[in-house]
Amino acid sequence: MTEPLSPRVRWAVLAAACLGLVFDGIELGLMPVASLSVSKSLLGEAYTPAAGGAWFAYFTAALMLGAAIGGILLGNLGDRIGRTRAMGISILFYSVFALMGGWVQSQEQMLLMRFLVGLGVGGMWPNGMALVAECWPAVSRPTVSGVMSAGLNLGILLLSQLARVFPITPDSWRWLFQLAGIPALLGIVVLLFLPESPTWLANRHAEKRPPPAISELFRGDLLRITLVAMVVASIPLVGAWSASKWMIPWADKVAGTVDPTYKAVTQGWWALGAALGSFFGAQLTQAIGRRLSYLLISIGSVVSTIAMFQLTAPLQSSFHPVVFAQGFIATLFFGWLAVFLPEFFPPRVRASGCGLAFNVGRFATAAGVLAAGGLFALLGGQYPYVGSLCALIYALGIVAVVFIPRRMAAE
Predict the structure, then answer these.
(1) By C-alpha distance, which of 221, 242, 222 is closest to 301?
(2) What is the value of pTM for the model shown?
(3) H helices then E strands: how many in the chain?
(4) How far apart are the first and last CA of the chain?
(5) Mean pLDDT, to the nearest integer, of 219-245?
């Protein structure tokens, strides 16, 4: 038998996991706000607006591909060696390789660093979510899950405010990557001092079977659950990176010569809406049910994303309010995932299942972003067109909601 954690220790677990996700969010928000400056600096005279858009797609795809692989492998590692240790390793991965990005000399080197950063970014979410879900009682789960989801977007918000004070330009961007290495200290603290999940420890002692393999998720009753979890987790991820994120390089292109901080302001408005959306998404889903909430969020995301690209534009007075609204609505999905995705899977395979489901979406996102990059070139570099067309990805949620189980493994 393992003793339940004291309130003080539970709060320490929540704080560490939230900080890990805040820094995770900083990594996710880093290239959208810095990509064009990095490309202008490293490409020099070879830079063109079309090349800038293409490299933004490449950097994003590399991060998503790394996150997909890292989430699956490090998620499974969390079931094998413990949530805490796998989370600490994930934090070290994204911090150290982000730091190394401050010294790259070519686009190809940066591409490799973003892939390696992605390994840690992908591992943080399933292990952090599984750890907190198992350390906090069910009655606190919606609030705690909302705080966790908000942490990811709070990191993006903090990054945008930093970029407002210290503008990111082709002559000044390396400091940002070097600063992103600081969370390595958190990774060390987690590995040395943070306690393990009592649920994981109890299952390890009670079960005589070997640690679960990822293939277990595709056997018996788990097969259908795993496939549905992969779909419902993929839709918001693909939509966010293939559609929503184009607003930031669009803002940079339109307003960058007039106001170098405009892209950071734009990201800040989106991140503020996203932080609130991620938090209240957990409350909304708990209040009205998993199926109805997923349906309404899907419809709202389609409408708000198309409105952002077609009914307003950078430098117009309505642009930032619409960006805020889109960030709020589209990230309600992630509050939903924080509450319900861990409940799809029994404790034995929880981190593996969450890691696989969430990060298969990142494989799809990598492919979607590259396709969106090709679409961007095909449409002559028109950000509103590519953003609007890719917004239709959210409409797939209207179909997917039919397959969401009425009862979860944790019920």
Answers:
(1) 242
(2) 0.81
(3) 17, 0
(4) 22
(5) 88
Token pair belonging to 312: 């307003």
Contact 196, 83 (CB under 8 A): yes
Question: Exposed, middle or buried: residue 137 (CB in 10 Å: 0-12, 13-18, 19+)?
Answer: exposed
∠ CA 217-219-221, rounded to 5°: 90
Q: Between the CA of residue 12 and those of 24, 102, 120, 162, 165, what are the distances in Å?
A: 18, 31, 21, 26, 31
How many other CB atoms sit within 10 Å of the CB of residue 382? 14
Domain that holds residue 131: 7-403
Residue 282 inside a domain? The answer is yes
> What's the CATH number where 31 sits?
1.20.1250.20
Report if residue 231 sits inside a domain.
Answer: yes
Q: CA 41: distance to chain centroid?
A: 27
The residue behind tokens 């399933």 is: 126
Tens-digit pLDDT profile for residues 116-151: 999 999 899 889 988 988 888 765 667 777 787 788
Contact by Cβ (8 Å): 377, 153: no
pLDDT on residue 17 = 94
